[in-house]
Amino acid sequence: MSTLKTLNGNQTIAEAVRQVDPDVLAAYPITPSTAIVETIAKFKADGRISGEFVCPESEHSAMSVCIGAASAGGRVMTATASQGLALMWEMLYIAAGLRLPIIAAIVNRSLSAPINIHGDHSDTMGARDTGWIQIYSENCQEAYDNFIQAFRIAEHLDVRTPTLVGLDGFIISHSMEVIKVEDDDRVKAFVGEYQPVYPLLDTSKKFTVGPIDFTDYYFEHKRNQMEGIENAPPIIEKVGKEFGEQFGREYGFFEEYRMDDAETCIVVMSSAAGTCKDAIDQLREEGKRIGLLKPRVYRPFPDKKIAESLKDMKAVAVLDRCASPGAFGAPLFTEIRNALYDYESRPKVVNYVYGLGGRDIMVEHFREVAEKLDRIADSGKVEEIYGYLNLRE
Amino acid sequence: MKKETWKELTIGTINLDAGNSVKNLTGTWRSGRKPEFIEENCIQCFFCWLYCPHFAVLVDDDEVKGINYDYCTGCGMCAEVCPSKEKAIVMVKEEAKLAEGGTK
């Protein structure tokens, strides 16, 4: 049985943490993820979780604590946002290189300068090459569901790769939503017992963690590391399916919304996908053949699956809540356009950057994109490959 | 020594052969010069032993006895810190590189 609870995004993560009860939780509070850490601290103070709660002097240290605790053999997690994730930077690579299945809830927030506390994807997109698995959530329910699944994915013996779950700052982290919270024992059973691999606390074995590699070994170790994230897709699929069987909400790599017979498509992740669905509903009622593809897993990137879904479209608009200065388009766009390259027939693909620093994206903005897609589909010509939504020009 | 392929390596850079850095003969890094120990000038202050970054000063029976050329990188720090009036360690020219497998 599940219970309906009114929680915001941060509380749903904390609720999942309480249910999983990892061995070590190390985090430093930062807006908009502070309430996750605060709630965990309260759970600890109230004796509702048994894991160690460590609040070190910075996010860099928080991730360092996670790495140490995971090397020791513990199930470990953290939560942060924005500058906090940026400060964890070098440790993110180390967690991935050591193949430690640390779980992080990242409340997506813009990066300074100028300082801004609101939601965009600059933080996690900046971390896209760190070797972490990245899963994004549309709403509080998905944040809760994704966070529980993240443990199963990261800890799978073929994967052993740290995993972050993103939820949009304020839009999700601070919005109340009625969500289904599953029973504690069923969540615990779903996540299962943690199986450490080469735990340092097992003193019966002699081994070294993190020794130096010179030119003769570094390359092989990095290739060996990549095997973990490359093994992840079937596990992500299996866990998403099993989650559906257990709790009635199945997950894949992305969600297709009203894609049947669609000729144009908007690709957008996280909370904006909810607004986009309303726009698609309106446009469908008006007879437009348009759909939405909402990526859930960004790393490993499901290139073939997304390309298969989009290849027969006439025009596709990829919306990024992140800019990539000097690059040929923003991160999601470059991946998707690249994935379609090998197809003989493929859609025209354009990119719009939206919502930086928490700027609103409304139904009217998706309608604006839909109109542009119509023009591209009709003419077969792209006038502007890269643009901005709801920006004062 | 045969080096593993990426598939043969243990997950997460774990090294199951703990302490195997002893097999890494840093003496092969030495290039052109090496320290020479002059026993009669040595005042047994242990400065060379303390400062050597590679633990390559040989000590036996509480006395400095010379240099372990398998690990000495030829940095010259020992000769530099030697406080003896007549230096007990001097850097000399070395023509040949350390052989594969070391001095033994």
Query: What is the arithmetic mean of pLDDT of chain A?
Result: 97
First-to-last CA distance of chain A: 52 Å
CATH superfamily of the largest domain in chain A: Thiamin diphosphate (ThDP)-binding fold, Pyr/PP domains
Main CATH class of chain B:
Alpha Beta
Q: What class do helices, strands and sheet pairing of chain A give?
A: alpha/beta
Overall geometry of chain A comes to globular
Largest sheet of chain A: 7 strands, mixed
Gyration radius over CA of chain B: 17 Å
**Into which percentage range does the β-strand content of chain B fall?**
15-25%
The level-1 CATH class of the largest domain in chain A: Alpha Beta
Number of helices of chain A: 14
Strand content of chain A: 15-25%
List the helices and strands and how they pair.
The complex is a heterodimer of chains A (393) and B (104).
Chain A: E1 2-7, H1 9-20, E2 24-26, H2 34-45, E3 52-54, H3 59-72, E4 76-80, H4 82-87, H5 89-97, E5 103-108, H6 122-126, E6 133-137, H7 140-155, E7 163-168, E8 177-182, H8 184-191, H9 218-230, H10 232-247, E9 254-257, E10 264-267, H11 272-285, E11 290-295, E12 297-299, H12 303-310, E13 315-320, H13 331-340, E14 348-353, H14 363-379, E15 386-388
Parallel strand pairs in A: 2-3, 2-4, 4-5, 5-7, 6-7, 10-11, 10-13, 13-14, 14-15
Antiparallel strand pairs in A: 1-8, 6-12, 9-11
Chain B: E1 33-37, H1 47-51, E2 57-60, E3 63-67, H2 77-81, E4 89-93
Antiparallel strand pairs in B: 1-4, 2-3
